[in-house]
Amino acid sequence: MGYGRYVLFRLVNLFIILGLVTLLTCAIFEGAMTQMLRAQIDERVRSDVMNYIQQQQARGYVPSQEEIREFEQSRRKLYEQKYGLDKPPWIRILYRVKDVMTLNLGRSVSEQISYAGSREVKTIILGYLPNTILLFTTGSIITMLVGVFIGFQIARRVGSFLDRFTSIFAMVTYSLPMWWTGLLFIFLFAFKLRIFPPGGMHTLPPPTGVLGYIDLLWHLALPLITYVFVNFGGVAYVTRQLIIGTLQEDFVMAARAKGIPERRVLYGHVLKAASPAIVTMTTLSIVNSLGGAIITEAVFNWPGMGRLYWIAIEANDMAIVIGLTYVLTLIWLAALIFIDLIYGVLDPRVKVGISTGGK
Are 101 and 22 in contact (CB under 8 A)? Predict the structure, then answer.
């Protein structure tokens, strides 16, 4: 299979898996979605009936109960046809899958969930996503840079004090729940030392201009420090183990035996050989960050994707839950394809999608 055909094959797989996940999600939430739609219809029908009665009375005519009942039934039938409730459940599920796959995610039913005055699910997700990128994706990038650098350094000094300290530090910090560490840091840096604010994205009322960006960075600092503190030790330890394993490979020993300078061996051979695993770890860390963290965002009162998930679940807003699940699944699958394709570039020993069959 050629490289181009392999890319096409993986893209087809992506849409098949994405469709199956969306189908499963829509099937799971079918009952809740139907209940939510019926509640919306009841509310709209009541409003339409009240308007009908008022309009008739304004004309000097008082409609009978039978006329009101007929009008109510006609409006209910109209809305049920509009929302597809007159069709079998499996038909509704397939229609919903089609809408979600084409990013027609519908509207939020909750009064407390909106963005810039819009209750369109797509607009809400796109509004919350940059906040999560600002905190967790930035934190993931800093964590990977610091962790990989430290891990590479301690792998060259196995058994040193720095190596032992980093290993112990990684085991301690990586086992700490981020939300618990966040509460501890809020108590220490916000209430005791009063260096950072305890939460939120802006001071109220938010300043404008350059002061607005400074205020945002001030609020961002504490949750960002918490994220990096909890995670970078684990990344450093994993990188250490990866580099140590690569240093014991035959091609490294052969390079040293040829008299190649140690710096060139480390950066030209070892780091290059370990790069696919490091890229995989970095990519998955960044992609995982896009989903946010429900409890951590609640602790810091940060309006990101995790907080949006929690609010949607509390409000029984299935349109947002389904939309978030679809978007994050799409990002994950795209990241896995990126990792597969980048392997062939980073490591010439790996020929992605090219069969070497034969005898």
Answer: yes
Q: How far apart are CA 316 and CA 221, in angstroms?
A: 33
Number of structural domains found in the chain: 2
Alpha-carbon span 292 to 25, nearest angstrom: 20
- Asked whether the beta carbons of 313 and 212 are under 8 A apart, the reply is no
H or E stretch at 79? helix 65-82
- 206's CB contacts (< 8 A; 6+ apart) are 212, 215
Kindly tell me if the per-residue pLDDT of 185 is higher than 90.
yes
Structure tokens at 247: 């240093």
Same domain, 201 and 242: yes
pTM exceeding the 0.90 threshold for the entire prediction: no
What phi, psi does 208 have (nearest 5°)? -115, 170
Residue 349: predicted pLDDT:
58
The CA-based angle 113-114-116, given to 5 degrees, is: 155
Q: What pLDDT score was predicted for residue 348?
A: 58
Q: Are residues 127 and 270 in the same domain?
A: yes
Q: Are residue 78 and residue 172 in the same domain, yes or no?
A: no
Question: Could you tell me which of 127, 109, 129, 133 has the C-alpha nearest to residue 119?
Answer: 109
User: Which amino acid is located at 129 in the chain?
Assistant: L
Residue 60 lies in a domain: yes
Q: Which residue has the tokens 């790069």?
A: 275
Angle between helices 3-28 and 89-101 (to 10 degrees): 130
C-alpha closest to that of 323 among 123, 91, 110, 39 = 123
Q: How far is Cα 102 from Cα 96, in angstroms, rounded to an integer?
A: 10
User: Within this chain, do residues 170 and 287 fall inside the same structural domain, yes or no?
Assistant: yes
Question: What DSSP state is assigned to residue 292?
Answer: -
Measured at the alpha carbon of residue 296, what is the angle toward residues 292 and 298, in degrees to the nearest 5? 100
Range(s) of the domain holding residue 95: 3-101
Collapse the DSSP code of 348 into the 3-class scheme (helix H, G, I; strand E, B; otherwise coil) and give the result.
coil
Considering the domain architecture, whether residues 75 and 211 belong to the same structural domain is answered as: no
Query: What amino acid occupies position 352?
Result: V
